[in-house]
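Quick one, probably user error.
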């Protein structure tokens, strides 16, 4: 009986230990709030801000709407100044911070989620034509920053010589730069790109250096591990494609070049193409005239040469080489081996023509004994005398 009681007591003790150890874990694993109060900046465009209709808007606002849909939880937004949004988490007045960087100062009162697929660059922008080294070593340059921003502690730790001029919101920093109250400021690049469209004066500023690049995270009050686990699991439920869509839509839009610059580039390219075409056509016409002149000159020269050659061929037809001629009858032997009279050969092989007659020696030899010839000769002598 005693053994039975001892075994029952032992079994009860084991069940109690299991309940104490595992039951809270199961509660934690099944934790799901009905509502999440999300705090962030009221004027951190394009991430979180109040639009013209008075509604919360921005990349992070879209992210939390999607989070609520995929995790079946109601999202309430509590947008305020940046520094105040950090205080809301610290004092437990909000469930989570909508998106920020992790640093050692914030880790004292905040737990951070796994990194979101949203990287962010914080840059130093300046209107002065000076190097980054000259800026960070100067004690006369006031750098505009958002109070409580990650970059505030970063600059104080790394560049203690800098004078920091703090503002409540990023919009306040932008307006101070636009109206000439500050010549240097540190903000994330998408925010500056977003405002360049609204305030062309920001184009006078250039990026002196990238101060920090990191992934944003969700922040909850330190010790609230159940909520942090729920948020990490909830982020994993959102399809990667949907996350890329909202990031791509907001960041690509804000980082695009201003409309006037695109129009200016199109105008310059169009004018360049027109100028190239005009110059090309002018060169073609000039080359065409030159070619026509050269062709005409060469044609005239060839025609003149051809005329001269034709004339020469018409006027001259020479016999050349050694001609075999009979020493007795004076016949000439042609290329076929036939003997031809001299006049026949020359007439055939040149343009010369013959008119026959008798020289005095031949006439005396042939007709010297004839009476008519003798009488003719006597009359010629009388005429000469």
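Nope, works fine. Designed sequence:
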């Amino acid at each position: 009986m005693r053994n039975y009681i001892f075994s029952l007591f032992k079994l009860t003790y084991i069940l109690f230990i299991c309940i104490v150890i595992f039951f809270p874990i199961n509660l934690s694993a099944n934790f799901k709030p009905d509502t999440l109060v999300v705090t962030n900046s009221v004027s951190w465009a394009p991430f979180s801000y109040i639009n013209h209709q008075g509604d919360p808007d921005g990349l992070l606002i879209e992210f939390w709407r999607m989070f609520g849909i995929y995790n079946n939880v109601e999202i309430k937004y509590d947008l305020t100044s940046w520094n105040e949004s950090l205080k809301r988490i610290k004092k437990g007045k909000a469930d989570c911070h909508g998106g920020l960087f992790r640093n050692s100062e914030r880790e004292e009162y905040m737990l951070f989620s796994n990194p979101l697929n949203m990287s962010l660059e914080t840059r130093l922008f300046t209107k002065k034509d000076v190097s980054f080294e000259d800026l960070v070593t100067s004690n006369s340059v006031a750098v505009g920053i958002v109070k409580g921003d990650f970059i505030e502690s970063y600059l104080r730790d790394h560049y203690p010589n800098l004078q920091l001029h703090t503002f409540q919101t990023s919009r306040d920093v932008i307006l101070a730069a636009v109206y000439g109250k500050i010549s240097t400021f540190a903000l994330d690049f998408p925010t500056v790109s977003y405002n360049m469209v609204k305030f062309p004066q920001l184009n006078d500023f250039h990026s002196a250096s990238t101060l920090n690049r990191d992934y944003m995270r969700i922040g909850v009050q330190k010790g609230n591990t159940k909520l942090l686990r729920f948020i990490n699991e909830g982020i994993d439920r959102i399809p990667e494609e949907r996350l890329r869509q909202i990031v791509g839509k907001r960041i690509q839009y804000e980082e695009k070049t201003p409309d006037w610059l695109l129009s200016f580039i199109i105008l310059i390219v169009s004018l360049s193409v027109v100028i190239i075409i005009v110059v090309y056509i002018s060169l073609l016409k000039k080359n065409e005239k030159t070619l026509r002149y050269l062709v005409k000159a060469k044609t005239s020269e060839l025609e003149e040469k051809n005329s001269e050659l034709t004339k020469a061929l018409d006027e001259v037809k020479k016999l050349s080489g050694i001609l075999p001629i009979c020493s007795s009858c004076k016949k000439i032997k042609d290329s076929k081996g036939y003997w031809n009279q001299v006049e026949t050969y020359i007439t055939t092989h040149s343009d010369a023509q013959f008119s026959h007659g008798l020289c005095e020696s031949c006439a005396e030899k042939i007709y010297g004994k004839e009476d008519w010839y003798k009488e003719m000769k006597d009359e010629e002598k009388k005429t000469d005398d």
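The first helix runs from residue 2 to 29.
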